[in-house]
Structure prediction request, 1503 residues.
Amino acid sequence: MQPPRPSVTAIVVSHDGARWLKETLQGVLRQSRPLDRLVGVDNGSRDGSAALLTEAFGANSVLTMPRSTGFGEAVAAVLERLPHTGGEEWIWLLHDDCAPDRHALEALLWAAAGDREAVILGPKIRDWLDRRTLLEVGVTVDRSGRRDTALEPREYDQGQHDGVHEVLSVSTAGMLVRRDVWERLGGLDPELPLFRDDLDLCWRATAAGHKVLCVTAAVAWHAEAAARRRRRMAVSDTHPRRLDRRNAMFVVMANLPFRSMLWSVVRNLFVSLLRTLLLLLAKQPANALDEVVAFGGVLSSPRRLLKARKARKQGRKQGYPKVKALFTPPGMALRRLTDMVQGYLSGAGPIDSAGRHHAVISEPSGEDDGDELLTDAGLMQRVFGNPGVLLCLGLLAVTIAAERSLLYGGLLGGGALVPVVGGASDLWQFYTSGYHAAGLGSGGWAPPYVAVLAALSTIFLGKTWLAVSVLLLGCVPLAGLSAYIATRSMISHPLARVWLAASYALLPVATGAVAAGRLGTAVVFVLLPAYAALAARVITGERRRARRAAWALGLLLAVGTAFAPLVYVLVAVLGGLAAVSFGGVRRGVGASLGIAMAVPIVLLAPWLAQLAADPGRILLEAGLHRPELVDSRLPPEALLLLSPGGPGVPPVWVTGGLFAAALAALLFRRHQMVVVVGWGVTVFGVLVATVAARVPVGDAPAWPGVPLAFAATGLIVAAALTGHRVIELHRAGGLRRVGAALMVLVACASPVLVAGLWIKDGVDGPLRRGVPSVITDFVAAASRQGEGTIVLRSGADGLLTFTVLRGRTPLIGETELPVPDALRRRLSDLVAGVISGRGGDDAVALASYGVRFVAVPGPVDAKVRRSLDADPALTRVNLSPNGGLWRMVAPLGRVYLQGKDGGRTPVPYTEPAGGGIAVTVPPGEPGRTLVLAEPAGGWTATAGGSSPAARTIDGWAQGFEPPAAGGRVTIEYGASWHRIWLWAQLAIVVLVLVLASPGARGAEITEEYAEPVAAERELQEVPAR
Amino acid sequence: MRLLIENRFGFLALVLVVLAAMFGVAFATRQGVAPAPVPAPARVAVESVSTVCPDPGGARVTAVTPPGGKGEGTATVAEVGGKPSAASRLEGPGVPWQRDVPARVGPVEVAGAGAMAAGLEAAQTSRRLGGDARGLAGVRCAEPGAVAWFVGPGPAAADVRLFLTNADDAETIVEILVYAGEGPVVNDSGSSLVLKPGEHRTVRLRDLAPSPLVMAVEVRTISGRVAAAARAVLPKGKGTDWLPAAAEPATTVVVPGIPGGGGLRELYVTAPGEADTVVHVKALTADGFYAMKNRESLEVPAGSTASLDLSTGIGGQPAAIVLTADVPIVAGAMTTGTGSRPDVAFSAGAPAIDVGSVVADNRAGKKLSSRLILSAPGAAAKVRVQALPRKGAAPAPVEVEIPAARTKEIKLAPPGGGDFSVMVQPLAGSGPVYGGRVLDESTPEGLLITAQPLALARTWAIVPPVEETSDVVLPAAR
Prediction:
């Protein structure tokens, strides 16, 4: 027997929706399965919606409600007045901006007939404007209330989601619900006048043992007018975003069983905070506020929540497993994270759109997404199909093969790199402390690159060695990646970009920097392509983007400058030239360039001032400056062929191919301007490199790696720009094809040769693993209070070199603290006196510098050993082929008392956690001096409320006049300015970061809403019933 | 300009011209930077000297600071651990201080500071005509140090005692190693001992190693410094003398100061390392180098001491022995006097006296004679010899030329005789000079003899160039 035909009542709720309503009504009236009853509800529209409804449904079938009525209330009001038919009765809910397809109802009813448990059914919802775009095929949430459509942004409907699925919820737009179930469940919750009311209803239905189906054979087009703020909402003044977020959390918390709910509260708190932070970063403070207010709103009205929970008590726990199965699958979060990172990298804000009501929120982004990254494929395929990733993997393989001797083992160090010891906290402490009890002691500014390394180490779980290894050993693949990404907008052909990135990453500068442990050059080498890309954007970009790029360039330039100050000079000169040439042409370019150039100056101010006092150091970089690492007579052809000399550099001729390719590129006419600029950069870079390689700083000239890398950037870009011309030549065939092949061969020769030679020779020093520590464990254990150790080494040429360490291998950067020349000379004389064996009290004087040990790493020179053995003030602790150690017979420590007669006695002292040094002075006669074996100046002492007079002892040390009665004296270094500056620096960094990061689009929605006048959907009058 | 840039060949030409110009600039400045030369080591006057005379009881102690020091300074003689008295203060530079020390006095420390430190030298000489310890025995008072080597007869051939003194303020741990003819002596009684500040101790080597006929003793400290000396007393009154401290192991060793005349001459060579070696032995006499027949070389097993009789080889000439080996060796020599009751004297490997040498205690008289035996194994040498008599004005210095590869004996006889000190100073342009001083006294029973290789004077110290740099945290780059 044929089951009785169910009766279907369509309820169209309108509210200021006249612009869509006409089409919606047509859709309703033209259903292939005619409706049994039609009811319109108008919530106080002011745009004539009511008239349209009346026109379509007839005056009797239209209900008018006040403006503030919610969707649920409106439906409830209709149902109150609507008599039961007796048989199976369905209600079809429609928004005024939701036009159903002609066969929608038929499909829905067919699905309902197929599954008796299905009580709520929804159509596939597509975008109103772009009719192929999918909006919803059922919606689910995760436990933090994040809405999930399981669709890609702007996913086209190609039938890929078709079928009848059980889902957690469907939208009220087009929802077909059985009337008895609706009434049993109590309908839509009036507490949720907008957003998530559908989720709540469906959740309750599912929990009650019913099914919610999405029927894709039924289609509706939805404008989502309220959520997209295309109409004002009268039901609430709250921003839709805030409302949506609040309702989402409310629904989740009301419907979850108790335990899960508690967990959900914690989770929501965390997620909300994170999202707020991200939104702040994205420069969307209003949205961040919404997020906070939404969460607060849920928690601040517990009674409302309790009431809602009470209403949903029945069957909540029993039905939960069924609901749970319909939640967002767990892997989704990971996928979303990768999408977010990817989106951020491609210039979108750091917060994705999936948490909003709609998948379609981001407008099509500009030209830079014309990348292969956008093809929608699996993550793996997306990653490994990308030539950039493949290039990176290739470079990584080359690097691992070449650096086989450096991959594991003991301390990494050698060349310019001091052995990498300590963790992130040590580096932070070093950077933030006002006085550095390292070496001879210094109140100078720590080099700012220490902060960069400390931050990186923190990311690498506190492991400085890992951060340094990645930066230094991984500089080749990193540089390749950065060059590949940076040229995205400059060079269109991916193969040309791959060539460019490989040629850049495998420059002799890179292999030389790795071999000699030049961390500074390695970092700048990775950053240079980014500078080029950002500078290009500053000059050519749209104003907002240009300004953002300028801040980013400033920040990255500050990082590079901290590692190798010369890069600032190079970029600043070019920036000045660019400002002169483009400043008049494009508005704001001059100011943007000014910002980019000013940020490093401001950020590094005090350290730069320190640097300016010794201008030669501008040519140097992070790490040690050792003559044996530099070719002091660098041949001119090496300079022209971008070979910086020194250890680990391939033969000069390997870059010949690159050079030839760049010269050949001059013969092509395309991109003439950029090629000229590229060559200009090259010439400038080589000139600066010549200066750097010829001007001595200390004993030897600087290593011209940074300017040569700079020159290479220009050269390679100039050559790569003609890449597609070569391909055109190739296509032309004949002799031209041969020529093209020849050019490609010549151009590719350089990176291939460098890689081959690098792998063949490996990296054989001076950078190596397993550098022996000059400070033995014994010394470290015996000088816990910062006593000094003289480390002495005899060179092959008879020169003895030494330095003072404080019971540990110096941290990275500590060796670059400024040491006053006078102090250095004085100490050199004392050490020379001890080593000469002339007797005398040189060793005793050394003790007054806080020195406790003299360590001589092996092999110990016989003369040195004899002299140290012969000194009565020193006694040998041990001597072996690994080295010798002598200790002071009468060490003084860092603090001692000097009597009137010059006699010195050590005084016990402690270093309290708050900083400073606490000394307990024994009582004694007046006229004594309490001496702190640190350079004088900047120290203050307090003794029981009074501050003892300070004076300089022995021409360098800090002395105080302690009270005769003795007592506790606290000595502190005045570093308040230092602290203030550090906070200021942090504030500037945060500010620049925020200004540089991609933020909100200019306006929320800028596209003008165009009324679609589609020819095929002709108006067709359907007689009102 | 614009035309030039827009023309493809024009721009190429422009680039090439610019590149050529840059090449030119780089080429022209190529010689620009020369590494700064390492400054030459400087000489400074020694500021403080401390020496310890090991067993002055019953002996005569002489101390002298040669003239030439600038400024103030004092030098004192005092028993280790005691306070110097007014009488024990040296008068001034160039005037030897001399005292006969009563018996049962412990080691004395001769210490100088400031101007009185530069070249301060002290020696103790004892002269006995009877008893077991009959003979003339002199020793240069030693500076405390970490290592001392003594090479000579073993406990089976003589009673050898070590005199160890710690004159410092820190405790010293001393280790004694014996290299006998059969190899290193390992004894389980433990050969290390602890000396407290101011403590001195005498060690009978027979207790450590009773059997060796020949041996080398290495006294080294594990921590602190020690002043070490060794005395050998031959049995049956066949003489006694102190073993001079030998130069530390080296592949070339010169044992200078072998006196002429009759009697036994015996060479001791030790190879303390891990490898056996063959030592090439050459004598350097007044006639030049010559390899002694059947005594051209000496095999020394690793860690052991070997001896070689050179009596007939040298043939009674004053000589120096030049030894070369492919591993570091230590060497010493024994000289026996003539007569019915002979005496012995010892020499040992010594350094070239680049900065000069001072011998504190020399005597001249009717039966006493002091001689310098100077050898120049390399280039010709020229030295100035200055006697510093205890009384009266110093005579004019004598300049002595030693031809290349020759040994020369110089008799020291200041007018008026008596006790005197002598200063030997190589002159500018001189080749390396090695030397020894021989002091003998003829008695009816035989010749009493003692010898002392010339040691480097403590006048000057070489100050190496020193530079403060952080590079030391890393090993030197290759």
